[in-house]
Amino acid sequence: MAAPPLVLSIQSHVAYGHVGNDAAVLPLLLLGMEPVAVHTVQFSNHTGYGEFKGQVFTPAHVQDVLDGLRARGVLARCSAILSGYLGDAGVGEVILAAVQEVRSLRPEVRYLCDPVMGDVGRGIFVRPGIPDFLRKRALSLASVITPNHYE
C-alpha cells in the first residue's frame, strides 16, 4: 500500500475555534492525506473575536521547525504545500524558501496560498508588510490562490 500524500500546512493555530491548521488538518486526513502542520502563530482564539492572546512566531522559529522536518526527510516527501495566516511577512519568506526547496526536489508539487489579510467589514487585519508580501512575492509562486471576496 502506498503512503498517503503528505501535505505541508503552514498557518495559524488557535486554542479555541477552527481556523488555520485547526480547520485544515481534519479535512486533509478525511481525504486520505497526511497533514504536517507547522504553526505561524498560537492565539487563544480567532482574531475576529476582537480580543485575543498569544504570540506570532518568529521567522527563526518557523525555520527551526522546517529544519527539523527536513532532517527527517519530510520536505522531500511533500506532495503539496498550503499556507494561510502568516502573522509576519518574514515568516512568508521562510515559507517561500520551503516551497522553492521542495519544488527543486519535486517540480510537480503544488503550492496553495490562502492570502489571509482582510475581510469585509473589518478591512485589513494583518501586520503591515503582509499585504505587499502576498501581492509582490507569494502569489507569483502559488499554483492556486484562495482569496475571500475582500482579498
Q: How would you describe this structure to a colleague?
A:
Helix 2 (59-71) packs parallel to helix 3 (89-105) and helix 3 runs parallel beside helix 4 (130-141). With 151 residues, the protein is α/β, with parallel strands linked by helices. It has a six-stranded mixed beta sheet with strand order 3-2-1-4-5-8. It has one domain (6-145): Ribokinase (UDP-N-acetylmuramoyl-L-alanine:D-glutamate ligase). The protein is built from four helices and eight strands; from the N terminus they run βαββαβαβββαβ.
Secondary-structure content class = alpha/beta
Task: Please state the CA-atom Rg, rounded to the nearest Å.
Answer: 15 Å
Strand order within the widest beta sheet: 3-2-1-4-5-8
Distance between the termini: 41 Å
Mind telling me the CATH superfamily name?
Ribokinase
**CATH domain topology:** UDP-N-acetylmuramoyl-L-alanine:D-glutamate ligase
Uncertain runs are none
Assign a percent range to the helix content.
25-40%
Please tell me the CATH architecture by its name.
Answer: 3-Layer(aba) Sandwich
What is the H/E order?
EHEEHEHEEEHE
Tell me the number of helical segments per DSSP (H or I, 4 or more residues long).
4
The percent range for strand residues is 25-35%
The total domain count is: 1
The outline comes out as globular
Number of strands: 8
Mean pLDDT: 96
Query: Main β-sheet: number of strands, strand sense, barrel status?
Result: 6 strands, mixed
Output the CATH class name: Alpha Beta
Structure described in brief:
The protein is of the alpha/beta class and 151 residues long. The chain is built from four helices and eight strands.
